[in-house]
């Protein structure tokens, strides 16, 4: 009997086994999320109101009308076009929307993985990024909510732009692709302005062209916005009290992302798993992130720290989806440090627990929405919503619990 040791070093074999286990468990978590999403009813305010309005709106009217409801302070023609196309194709059938939403999550994971590769991160960080996208309370809120699908598109555009900027493509092609992504993101949601972060990187080699392209897109967006809803970013004519509240909201959002000591703009009142996890992740970024002065790290820090300004007049977790994506990439950069060999696996395990808790919480929230709103209300809780739309949505929601 041959009792000799194998030629392959044991640590390498163990790492391969660990990667296999990580990918298998990550796949289970993602499948679990889809199963839970498939049994989630329409959000009874934004989803129903927005889809009903789009169903009565012509495509030609979309570029010249406010988003969501008449008189709203939002201008999102790309978001309205996307949801109008989906509603034209699917009507009030719920499952196809969830398939599209889950497909958007997979596309976000792919573009983020490509961006990670452009940042020279090892493949072991991809499972971590996957469970982070599920577990982050700032990203998952957008992933599971149909009305926030345009926000996920903004994240995809940012990740794709990151991959483009740090690719080996020609400078002219980088500018062209980033301009397309900038237009797409801006048309989806106001925080698409964050893609201006790519401008300095492109202006370094193409100063005139980059300035003209990014300037024309930005000015064109604000001109269309002003012509449609009459103001820039919802802060016109704000009183000093409103501005003070806005500053407080921004501060609370930054604290939420980096420490999770605030939630929805308010201090947390109970210690949950996500708080020590966020604190530990931030500590890892602060202690282990290599090359703090590198161009990728600077870009991601600008987005992670600065995009809280898009909290509008109130603080919400979902407003932090874009800075949270930058935060996740910073965490992946920190865990790729070679100082602690098993660090990527340990961090993946910690965020896998958070991802599992998120899937559980999404299921509980869906059940609560059905039992608290859909089951007891035979007539629409919103007077402006037609009875026949509520009946369809209610019938669908109740069927999910049968």
From TrEMBL:
The chain crosses the membrane at residues 21-38, 99-119, 126-146, 152-168, 175-200, 206-224, 297-314. Keywords: Membrane, Transmembrane, Transmembrane helix. This is Uncharacterized protein. It comes from Bradyrhizobium nitroreducens.
């Amino acid at each position: 009997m041959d009792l000799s040791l194998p030629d392959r070093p044991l640590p390498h074999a163990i790492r391969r086994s660990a990667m296999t286990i990580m990918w298998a468990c990550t796949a289970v978590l993602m499948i679990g999320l889809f199963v839970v999403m498939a049994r989630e009813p329409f959000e009874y305010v934004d989803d129903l109101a927005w889809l009903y309005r789009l169903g009565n709106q012509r495509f030609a009217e979309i570029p010249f009308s406010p988003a969501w409801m008449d008189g709203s302070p939002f201008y999102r023609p790309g978001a309205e076009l996307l949801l109008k196309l989906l509603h034209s194709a699917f009507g009030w059938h719920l499952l196809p929307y969830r398939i599209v939403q889950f497909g958007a999550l997979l596309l976000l994971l792919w573009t983020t993985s490509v961006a990670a590769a452009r940042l020279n991160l090892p493949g072991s960080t991809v499972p971590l990024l996957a469970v982070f996208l599920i577990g982050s309370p700032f990203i998952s809120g957008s992933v599971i909510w149909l009305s926030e699908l345009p926000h996920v598109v903004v994240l995809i555009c940012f990740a794709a732009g990151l991959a483009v900027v740090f690719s080996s493509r020609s400078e002219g092609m980088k500018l062209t692709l980033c301009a397309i992504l900038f237009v797409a993101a801006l048309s989806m949601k106001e925080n698409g302005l964050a893609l201006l972060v790519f401008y300095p990187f492109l202006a370094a080699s193409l100063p005139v062209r980059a300035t003209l392209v990014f300037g024309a897109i930005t000015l064109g967006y604000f001109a269309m916005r002003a012509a449609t809803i009459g103001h820039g970013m919802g802060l016109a004519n704000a009183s000093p009290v409103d501005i003070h509240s806005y500053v407080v909201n921004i501060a609370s959002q930054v604290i939420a992302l980096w420490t999770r000591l605030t939630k929805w703009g308010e201090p947390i009142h109970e210690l949950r798993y996500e708080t020590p996890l966020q604190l530990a992740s931030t500590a890892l970024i602060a202690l282990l992130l290599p090359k703090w002065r590198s161009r990728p790290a600077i870009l991601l820090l600008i987005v992670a720290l600065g995009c809280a300004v898009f909290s509008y007049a109130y603080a919400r977790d979902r407003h932090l989806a874009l800075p949270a994506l930058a935060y996740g990439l910073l965490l992946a950069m920190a865990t790729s440090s070679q100082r602690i060999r098993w660090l990527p696996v340990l961090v993946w395990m910690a965020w896998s627990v958070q991802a599992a808790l998120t899937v559980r919480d999404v299921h509980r929230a869906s059940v609560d929405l059905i039992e608290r709103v859909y089951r007891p209300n035979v007539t629409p809780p919103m007077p402006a919503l037609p009875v026949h739309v509520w009946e369809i949505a209610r019938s669908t929601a109740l069927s999910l619990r049968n």
